[in-house]
Amino acid sequence: MLVTAERDNLLERVRDGQHTLRTISSAQLVSQTVSVTTLWLSSVLSSLGDLQRRGTFVAGVGDFRVTEQTMDCAGRVLSCIRQHFLPTPSVSPVSGGGVAISWNLNSEEIELIVFPNDRVLLSKMEEGELTQDPIELGPNEYSKVDSALGEIMAE
Known about the structure:
The chain has four helices and ten strands, in the order ββααββαββββββα. By secondary structure, the protein is an alpha+beta fold. The protein has one domain. The strands form three sheets. Strands 5, 6, 7, 8, 9 and 10 form a six-stranded antiparallel β-sheet that branches.
């Protein structure tokens, strides 16, 4: 099952004595369909969940609470990545409710930053230096993340 904007807010019936409804975020939906060949995806989704649960507001520094909207957008972006055998990315909070997901391969790095309001930035670095300005991706451009990862995997 692919996660699409139409399926973003899938409602699932849950039995808990009575019938209740709960919303499943894209990130949760993707994590339920992960195969064993995508261990990196399982790891990043687990890290995102941990960040969302333990995010805090630090006075004078920033708001590091990951929003539900960020989680949904991250799930949609991650579902567009077709590379199965990637290294486990690092995941960290970004002030303002966002997350940064970084894949590091040899001296190259792909960084994906997801902010609330479906704002997504993709950047490429080599030996810690930006090789191009960050690109803002619209919902129809999330496959560019897969292409960028494929390029550095092929090298």
